[in-house]
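Can't paste images in this forum, so I'm doing it all in text. The chain is below; anyone willing to post the predicted structure tokens underneath?
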Amino acid sequence: MYSISVPHKKGGSNLKTVKIKLKPTKVQAIELTRLSKEYINQANLLVKRAIEEESFPKVTSKDINASLPSVVKNELIRYAKTKHKQFGKCVFKKRTVSWNNQNFSLSANAISFPMMVDGKTKKLPVRAIIPTELFTKLDSAKLGALRIAKKGHHWIASIAIDFPAVETDGTEILGIDLGILCPAVGVISATGKTKFFGNGRQNKFIRRKYKQLRRELGEKKKLDAIKRISDKESRIMRDINHKISREVVNFAIDNDCGTIHLENLSGIRQTSKARGKHKANLHNWTFFELGSFIEYKAREVGIKVVKVKPDYTSQTCPSCGMRNKIKDRNYACGCGYHSHRDRVGALNIAQKT
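Text version of the structure:
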């Protein structure tokens, strides 16, 4: 499992944060818990001292009285100093621990970093779920700091990465309509060239399958098994979204697109009028994740991403501008225009400004 935050450009580069799920052993999990607790405790002591002395104290790792690797002590000093400069009086509550980019390394299935073993510092590999596609990207990118924190029952590693900015001279616009039955439909604005991405029925089958498994395991009170298959389902759906987003961006590249128009679907779960099974399907729909994947993959190759309002895009006729309520997948207008409903939506999105 991993995710990537939407990048922003700064100084000729694409900055983003990759979040990777860790699978530490029981001993490693205990040590991570201790490290993160001590890290935050010591950072709070430094900020408290800074407030009392009205300036941040000049300290080194030797001044930190805690059983932590010296590289972690240096990071917590830097962390506390930065936060104190930003916010002044502050208290850290979320347990976390970090290492700089010179003190950790990546392999295809693990992240190695210094921890304490029998009172001594030792660099240990912790198992991590790193898909091949992501590992290839990380291997060629400039890595920043590693930060590890516990989210729910999972340990999550966050790594800052810096990709060189890329520019494209593409002139076409690709509109993308995201949906449930058709995960993504793309239309080139100028030519009308269309492509359907993914299989919505397959996605719904996967959701139903794991929902039934959870129901059966719930009746047997097997809570750990429920957690495991939920994680597996998330990994499967995330992998599907990665593949779809890659196909979308490749389609844009092949058709000389310099811009992708995406629907701005923020808050759709709250504003949608869907009811019953349709509302349940909407809540299970990973549209935000798919949109994020399309966005960061596009920007990596220099394609600009623009968010547009999706209002009436599937109802408005691209030919005459009339709105028509459509009950099935076929769109037909009184002016004679007809097409697939999702294609109509993507075409209108491509033509929106």
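The chain has nine helices and 16 strands. The radius of gyration is 24 Å.
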